[in-house]
Design a protein that fits this description.
The complex is a heterodimer of chains A (189) and B (276). Chain A is globular. Chain A has ten helices and no strands. In chain A, helix 3 packs across helix 9 and helix 4 runs antiparallel to helix 5. Chain B has eleven helices and eleven strands. In chain B, the strands form two sheets. In chain B, strands 6-5-4-3-2-1-7-8-11 form a nine-stranded mixed β-sheet. Classes of the chains: A mainly alpha (189), B alpha/beta (276).
């Protein structure tokens, strides 16, 4: 049970209606619809940032799932475990990203290690270390670093939004996780 | 020219900004859009916000203000606030006029020389028919109050909702009454019951949506709406289907959203419903 009313299609505010045009827009949209003037900018922002961009889908799912696990977001970990599997990540990688196994045991690629370290540093409190920055800049262009940073912060926005409002996972997501042998997850490491 | 002036001139949005001063009421009409009644949450905008909205509306290029509720005149500060708002833009205030004691009538003297008019609900020329919808004694109180308000030089409009007026001869009798009370024909408006709020519970009136309602920016304590007929309550829950923005201050934000929405609005038949 979410902590706010999730707005259904029959009560969708005028500015929110386009997001309902294709059917059920999902619980994040249904919650954001409470404030339609913010929804109409926030939802496209997170959609564009988490969706297809210049950074490849695998790299983005590494970041999204790991940051969600670091922040203990039950909803996002569940949703992006499914997305990560569908993107082609193997079970060991998914478990490590969910903080259920050490990353270093699974990810050997130096670029991916640097990206994951950058994501973790951005998602943590306090300054981001020069060594972590230098590592990611060795493998990524400035544009990629900026995009990855936006991706981490957009993921954190969703993590805290979903966690604070206690948004429920979709039944088909939970069923898929069960079939894949993953717990719903979400406890911080 | 501001965007609002252009939009109003093009007929894209109405030139009046409506303000829900409050949601509580001394009556509990069977077709009330907002389920207003004595015990409901007040949800007041407050005098300061009413004045600021008036100033912002004028600054944006709107041409008139409307104040509705609930029963606005349950708010002790309302007469003086309306007078100050009318120094900015002409104001029409909707009231059931059942609450005007001598002392309250005296306070309407603040309207002297200012463009304030009162729109008073009266549904039938017969007390029993009127009070069936609006509650006991409301007819008597209205017919007592209207001539006294008119006598103070305040313009009165009579607003009639249709259920009783649709009966044979009912409209003629009602028009004879409002003329007798001092309200001319041009100040008598008749409109349908809109099936929202308590009217929906009671299966009264005509269903309406964005297409049927003229776009008139409407400000409440809980957000900006497409029309004064949109900021409704059903089952004690605020309807959000015609919510424009939660942001109401500055007024520019919902006004700009209204203009954008009106540009994408399909052609409707709002004028035929006379929902104004």
């Amino acid at each position: 049970m979410a902590r706010v009313e999730l707005i259904g299609a029959d009560q969708a505010p005028l500015l929110a209606r386009p997001f309902y045009a294709g059917g059920d827009p999902g619980v994040i949209a249904a919650a954001m619809a409470q404030v339609p003037e913010l929804m109409e900018v926030a939802l496209p922002f997170v959609g564009r940032t988490l969706g297809p961009t210049a950074v490849d889908a695998r790299t983005k799912e590494l970041v999204i799932l790991h940051v969600s696990a670091l922040l203990g977001c039950r909803y996002c970990v569940a949703a992006h475990t499914v997305v990560a599997i569908d993107t082609g990540l193997d079970r060991d990688e998914v478990r490590a990203l969910r903080c259920e196994a050490p990353l270093v045991d699974v990810f050997a690629d130096e670029r991916e290690r640097a990206v994951l370290a950058w994501a973790a540093a951005v998602a943590a409190t306090g300054p981001v270390g020069d060594d972590v920055a230098a590592a990611v800049r060795r493998w990524c262009t400035d544009a990629e670093v900026v995009e990855l940073t936006l991706l981490v912060t957009a993921t954190m926005l969703l993590n805290r939004f979903c966690t604070a409002l206690d948004l429920p996972s979709a039944p088909d997501t939970l069923a898929r996780l069960a079939r894949e042998g993953f717990a719903a997850g979400g406890s911080p490491p | 020219m501001t965007a609002v002036v252009d939009a109003v001139a093009a007929g894209a949005i109405g030139d009046r900004v409506w303000l829900y001063s409050n949601y509580h009421c001394n009556l509990a009409c069977t077709y009330c859009l907002t389920e207003s009644a004595p015990g409901v949450a007040r949800r007041e905008l407050g005098a300061e916000r009413l004045l600021r909205a008036a100033e912002q509306a004028a600054g944006l290029g709107f041409g008139a203000l409307g104040v509705t509720g609930g029963e606005p005149f349950l708010l002790a500060y309302l007469p003086e606030t309306l007078a100050r708002m009318a120094d900015v833009l002409p104001v029409v205030a909707l009231t059931n006029a059942t609450y005007f004691s001598d002392e309250r009538l005296e306070r309407l003297s603040a309207f002297a020389g200012r463009p304030v008019s009162l729109q008073i609900s009266l549904d039938a020329a017969e007390p029993d028919r009127n009070d069936l919808f609006r509650g006991p004694e409301s007819f008597r109180r209205v017919v007592e109050a209207v001539p006294r308000i008119v006598a103070r030089g305040i313009r009165v409009r009579i607003a009639t909702t249709e259920p009783a007026a649709l009966e044979p001869g009912a409209m003629e009798r009602l028009c004879a009454l409002h003329r007798e009370l001092g309200v001319p024909d041009e100040d008598h408006v008749v409109r349908p019951v809109v099936r929202r709020g308590r009217a929906s519970t009671n299966h009264l009136g005509v269903p309406v949506g964005m297409a049927e309602l003229p776009p008139e920016l409407t400000i409440t304590a809980e957000g900006a709406f497409w029309s004064p007929f949109a900021a409704t309550v059903h089952g004690r829950r605020l309807d959000t289907d015609l919510l424009v923005t939660r942001t109401t201050d500055p007024l520019r934000i919902p006004a700009e959203a209204m203009i954008r929405l009106s540009e994408g609005r399909p052609a409707g038949d709002d004028a035929t419903l006379n929902i104004r």
